[in-house]
Amino acid sequence: MQIRDALIMGREFLNLHNIQSANLDAQVLLSKVTGMDRTGLLLQGDRALTAEQQQQYRSLLDRRAWGEPVAYLTGCKEFMGLDFIVTPAVLIPRPDTELMVETALEYLKKSDKGNPLAVDVGTGSGAIAASLAYLVPGLQVWAIDLSNEALEIAKQNARLHRVEDRIHFRQGNLLKPMPLEMKGRISVMTANLPYIPSGDIPGLMSDVKDFEPHLALDGGIDGLDLYRLLIPMAYSFLKPGGLLLMEIGPGQGEPASKILPPDLWQTEIKLDLAGRERLVVAEKNKNQFKQQKDCGFPERKMAATLVFKLNGI
Ligand SMILES: C[S@@+](CC[C@H](N)C(=O)[O-])C[C@H]1O[C@@H](n2cnc3c(N)ncnc32)[C@H](O)[C@@H]1O
């Protein structure tokens, strides 16, 4: 079979199975099998495939027809212009999440001239942590995940981009694995934690709900359970003026903002390229730091009382 015929056959087969990106997927899968890029495939359409290549291609097409995401089939996904290894142990990094990295980069460029410190909680494939370390020389990142399998992939990605010596990988729940001496010292914290409301999971596309890890998706009744727990912890680790970035879905901007007390945080909601709410940008207020440090966290109510007293209220 020639490349040209294989592409037509693959496209038609995937179309029959209602795969929306049938043409592109057929090209990407044949690239994987032949080692040729997509332009090469189009330019060398009359080249013949070996019997082994035909068999591998058919097997990948079958798996794609059953809904398996292309990134799991190729083992690779591009994010921030870098290639990342992905397996079913990790969520496939989404282009929408680049907004979070771009926001962190902008902030670090403006505000931190030394060797800044960052935390990426729920690191998954490590795409956010490794992109930040790759793009900000001298940045040190703590990359935390509950899943050991995900951390193994994140470590491979850090090695791939030669940033493993500046990323501290830790297994555990939210910020529990953070060294206490880092309190009040972190410049930026990125959190793409699960934020899909539990009730919405059954209605997700099959390639997400049947193939991606549920530990990476389910955010509780309104999707914000983990952010509710994270915010007070994040407050104590960020330095005054430090940034907490949390990815959200459409409709979660207002409820997420309500979890961030305005006396402690300045909050903004950013939209993605499709105009949907995508990112909570919360800056830790500078002028509250002294009182918070005295009180400690998570005793936020005590801290707020002290602020009122100091203000003579
Ligand atoms: C939505 S995925 C994001 C992965 C990656 N940061 C990205 O943007 O592609 C969420 C990740 O959070 C991890 N996670 C879920 N609950 C967690 C918790 N309580 N503490 C730390 N990590 C958690 C999951 O294992 C998963 O890797």
Automatic annotation (TrEMBL):
CDD domains: AdoMet_MTases. It is an enzyme of class 2 (transferase). The keyword Nucleotide-binding does not apply. Signal peptide: none annotated. Residues 5-75 form the Release factor glutamine methyltransferase N-terminal domain. Gene3D superfamilies: DNA helicase RuvA subunit, C-terminal domain (1.10.8.10), Vaccinia Virus protein VP39 (3.40.50.150). InterPro entries: HemK-like, Methyltranfer_dom, N5-glutamine_MTase, PrmC_N, RF_methyltr_PrmC, SAM-dependent_MTases_sf. It comes from the Bacteria. It catalyses: L-glutaminyl-[peptide chain release factor] + S-adenosyl-L-methionine = N(5)-methyl-L-glutaminyl-[peptide chain release factor] + S-adenosyl-L-homocysteine + H(+). GO terms for molecular function: peptide chain release factor N(5)-glutamine methyltransferase activity. Its EC number is 2.1.1.297. Residues 119-246 form the Methyltransferase domain. S-adenosyl-L-methionine binds at residues 122-126, 145, 192. GO terms for biological process: methylation. SUPFAM superfamilies: S-adenosyl-L-methionine-dependent methyltransferases (SSF53335). Keywords: Methyltransferase, S-adenosyl-L-methionine, Transferase. It holds the Pfam family Methyltransf_31. Belongs to the protein N5-glutamine methyltransferase family. PrmC subfamily. Methylates the class 1 translation termination release factors RF1/PrfA and RF2/PrfB on the glutamine residue of the universally conserved GGQ motif. This is Release factor glutamine methyltransferase. It comes from Desulforamulus profundi. The lineage of its organism: Bacteria, Bacillati, Bacillota, Clostridia, Eubacteriales.
